[in-house]
């Protein structure tokens, strides 16, 4: 009897602690889209290969159709914007609303129905004609039409300058915790499946386009490189080599990307192109493009240097940049919201930034190629895992390069800027922890923060202090090694906080309970 009890106990223990095999879905896109710059609309056709790597048969797939978030004042996005006076005023001026419609789904060539989400008009459920078995794949197709809003909350247009983000029907993530079919929010970002993109964009022929992925049109790419290399030598924003449009009325540009979770593109007739290359390792050189306005922030003349410097730094901190191109785009000059990242390209809206600030915001957004693109965590539920880790490395970059910190800017005393980088960092973090109220806990769903300031303080600043706390306790060298292991193990996957904790415990040889409990702590650390 005793042997039987021991045997049963061992079996139960083994079952309880055996780890389930990791899996994630795969979503591969082929999209054709055309821009009408008179009506500010997109007309597209999307084909998706959806691969079910889960152990579950799927009877439906949730889709984000996020342009509908702008459609009226009753959406989750609008209600969030209405909570605070600043964003409420912004919303009140918002007249040129967007939408996404004309969906007509087929699955493997068979017409398929979809249902509207009972609460959110920017989420729909595609009902599959037959359950998709584990290991199976289906081809989903639909036309779609987008009325681009005036630029607000990461996407839209300013006259005939286009920031095309969150613009196509996108399957929600299905992982071991279920479906993540959340609506679009301004306070709270994304969670997207990895896959490949093959996107063909038709625009009037005189537009310059910057986009996720590698431009496949050899002539267009060569002209961008030639113009950009010539402009790299110019210290002027205005006396630059300009783009020569083809004779045809329109052109179609094709972009391809692998192992990416999203796709964004930007189009403007007046972009100034800058181009350089960055050698990351022997035999590996990547392309660096920036696009800016001739009458924008004067420091964009050095923008490729900032992109290169940030990419090089993060590659040394965490692991090599994985993509063949890295890019930054200057946003509207009447908008000051920092930046918004997408794979291989980032939008920067900092019209008044000085040298250190512009370099820092570009580097932060480029850094999201690690914490968003290559490490695809659930930003809506655990924003700190993306923003906090990224801010920690941004602050290190600023300290090492400039003895600067974006939070304090020009208020940093001269004597502090003469300190060695590690002492400078110590003083900055000590001041941050003491001077800035930090009531909300770090690990809180983005939508649950009471306002935008609390969200920013907790998920960016307080979380970066938490990482610095680990540095103080374990030493920078050991922490760097542990976070590089985290990047290496979870690259192109969906890590949750428990996955980060497991890697840290393994690499640091310590029980991380006390440290991870701090993520739920209110007030300062």
Description:
With 525 residues, this protein is α+β, with helices and mostly antiparallel strands. 32% of the residues lie in helices and 27% in strands. Strands 1, 2, 4, 5, 6, 9, 15, 17 and 18 form a nine-stranded mixed beta sheet that branches. The chain has a five-stranded mixed beta sheet with strand order 20-21-22-24-23. Helix 5 packs across helix 6, helix 8 (384-402) packs across helix 9 (421-435) and helix 8 (384-402) packs across helix 10 (452-474). The chain is globular. The relative contact order is 0.09.
Number of strands: 24
How many helices? The count is: 13
Summing up helix and strand content along with how strands pair, one would put the structural category as alpha+beta
Main sheet properties:
9 strands, mixed
Shape: globular
The residue fraction in helices comes out at 25-40%
- The assigned CATH architecture of the largest domain is 2-Layer Sandwich
Distance between termini? 52 Å
What percentage of amino acids are in beta strands? 25-35%
CATH fold naming of the largest domain: Zincin-like
Number of domain modules:
3
Query: What low-confidence regions span 5 or more consecutive residues with pLDDT below 50?
Result: 1-17
Radius of gyration: 24 Å
The CATH C-level name of the largest domain is Alpha Beta
């Amino acid at each position: 009897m005793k042997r039987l009890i021991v045997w049963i106990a061992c079996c139960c223990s083994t079952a309880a602690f055996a780890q389930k095999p990791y899996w994630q879905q795969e979503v591969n896109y082929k999209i054709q889209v055309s821009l009408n710059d008179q009506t500010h609309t997109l007309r597209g056709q999307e084909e998706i290969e959806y691969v079910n790597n889960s152990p579950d048969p799927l009877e439906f797939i949730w889709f984000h159709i996020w342009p509908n978030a702008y459609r009226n004042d009753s959406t989750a996005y609008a209600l969030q914007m209405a909570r605070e006076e600043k964003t409420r005023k912004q919303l009140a001026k918002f007249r040129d609303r967007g939408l996404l419609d004309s969906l007509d789904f087929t699955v493997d060539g068979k017409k398929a129905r979809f249902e509207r989400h009972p609460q959110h008009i920017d989420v729909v459920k595609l009902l599959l004609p037959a359950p998709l078995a584990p290991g199976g794949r289906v081809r989903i197709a639909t036309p779609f039409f987008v009325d681009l809003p005036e630029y607000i909350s990461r996407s839209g247009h300013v006259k005939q300058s286009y920031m095309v983000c969150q613009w196509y029907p996108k399957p929600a993530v299905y992982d071991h915790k279920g479906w993540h079919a959340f609506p679009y929010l301004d306070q709270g970002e994304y969670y997207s499946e990895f896959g490949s993109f093959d996107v063909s964009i038709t625009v009037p022929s005189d537009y310059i386009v910057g986009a996720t992925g590698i431009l496949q049109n050899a002539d267009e790419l060569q002209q961008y490189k030639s113009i950009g290399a010539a402009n790299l030598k110019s210290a002027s924003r205005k006396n630059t080599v300009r783009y020569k449009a083809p004779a045809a009325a329109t052109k179609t540009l094709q972009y391809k990307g692998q192992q990416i979770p999203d796709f964004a593109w930007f189009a403007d007739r007046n972009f100034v192109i800058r181009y350089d290359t960055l050698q990351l390792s022997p035999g590996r050189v990547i392309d660096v493009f920036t696009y800016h306005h001739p009458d924008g922030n004067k420091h964009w003349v050095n923008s490729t240097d900032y992109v290169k410097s940030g990419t090089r730094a993060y590659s040394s901190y965490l692991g090599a940049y994985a993509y063949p191109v890295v890019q930054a785009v200057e946003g509207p000059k009447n908008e000051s919201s920092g930046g918004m990242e997408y794979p291989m390209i980032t939008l920067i809206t900092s019209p008044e930034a000085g040298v250190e600030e512009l370099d820092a915001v570009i580097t932060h957004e480029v850094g999201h190629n690690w914490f968003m693109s290559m490490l695809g965590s659930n930003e809506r539920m655990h924003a700190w895992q993306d923003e906090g880790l990224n801010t920690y490395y941004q602050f290190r970059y600023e300290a090492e390069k400039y003895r600067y910190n974006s939070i304090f800017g020009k208020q940093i005393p001269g004597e502090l800027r003469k300190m060695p980088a590690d002492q400078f960092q110590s003083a900055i973090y000590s001041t941050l922890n003491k001077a800035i109220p930090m009531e909300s806990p770090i690990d809180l769903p983005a939508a649950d923060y009471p306002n935008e300031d609390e969200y920013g303080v907790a998920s960016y600043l307080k979380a970066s202090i938490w990482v610095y706390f680990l540095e103080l306790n374990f030493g920078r060298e050991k922490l760097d090694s542990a976070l590089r292991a985290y990047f290496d193990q979870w690259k192109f996957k969906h890590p949750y906080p428990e996955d980060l904790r497991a890697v840290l415990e393994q690499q640091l040889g310590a029980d991380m309970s006390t440290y991870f409990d701090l993520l739920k702590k209110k007030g300062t650390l």
